[in-house]
C-alpha cells in the first residue's frame, strides 16, 4: 500500500495521540495545556494558534474516539462500527479538503478548514488517514501491541503485516528475552 507523506504524518499523530491516554496505572500524557503544546510540536502540526483548556478537553474527547477506532479495527464483526465512527468524526470536524504547500513540503491536501480548532484539525486529517486504510482494505494494520504490559496503539506498515509490537526493540525484545530465559530454566530443571 502506497502511503504518502501527509497520510503517514497523520497516522503517526493519531498513534501518538491514542498512546497519550493513561493505561492502567500510567499517567495521562495530556495532563495540561503545556503537554498538549508538546504533542503539537512533536508531531509538527501546522496552523495551530494559541491553545487553552477547551482545546485540551476537546482533544481528549477526540483521543477517546480514536481509541475506539483502534479497538474495533482488528475485529471483522466491528468493521461497520469502524466506518461509522470515522464517518461521524470526519463529518463533525467539518472536513474541507484544500491543496496547500507550506514548511518546505510540496503540494498536499489538508482536510481541516482554515482556522479549525486543534481537535477538528486532528479529527479531519487523522480521520481521513484512517479512512484511507479502511478503503484500501488495510483496517487490520491498526493494532495494539501484543506485549501484555504495553497495549500501545500502532499502525503496522510492514510489507507482510506481521508486526506484533509497538516497538520491537523494547516490547518485542523484552518478551523474546523472557521466553528465552524461561526455556533455559526449563531445560536446566
Describe this entry's structure for a reader.
This protein has 189 residues and is mainly alpha-helical. It has one domain (5-144): Jann2411-like fold. It has six helices and four strands, in the order ααααββαββα. It has helices at 5-18, 33-42, 53-73, 79-92, 118-135, 168-188, and strands spanning 98-100, 108-110, 142-144, 153-155. It has a two-stranded antiparallel ribbon. Strands 3-4 form a two-stranded antiparallel sheet. Strand 1 (98-100) and strand 2 form a beta hairpin. Helix 3 runs antiparallel to helix 4 and helix 3 (53-73) runs parallel beside helix 5 (118-135). The longest helix is centred in the middle third of the chain and has 21 residues, at 53-73.
In CATH, the architecture is Orthogonal Bundle
Shape: globular
Count of discrete structural domains: 1
Query: CATH topology, what is it called?
Result: Jann2411-like fold
Name the CATH superfamily assignment. Jann2411-like domain
Alpha-beta content class: mainly alpha
Strand order of the largest sheet: 1-2
Q: Give the overall pLDDT as a whole number.
A: 86
Radius of gyration, rounded? 18 Å
Helix content: 40-55%
Strand count, sense and barrel status of the largest sheet are: 2 strands, antiparallel
Domain Zinc finger CGNR: 141-184
Organism: Streptomyces iranensis
Pfam family, one: zf-CGNR
InterPro entries: ABATE (IPR010852), ABATE_dom_sf (IPR023286), Znf_CGNR (IPR021005)
Quick tags:
189 residues, mainly alpha, Jann2411-like fold, two-stranded antiparallel sheet, 6 helices, 4 strands, 52% helix, globular
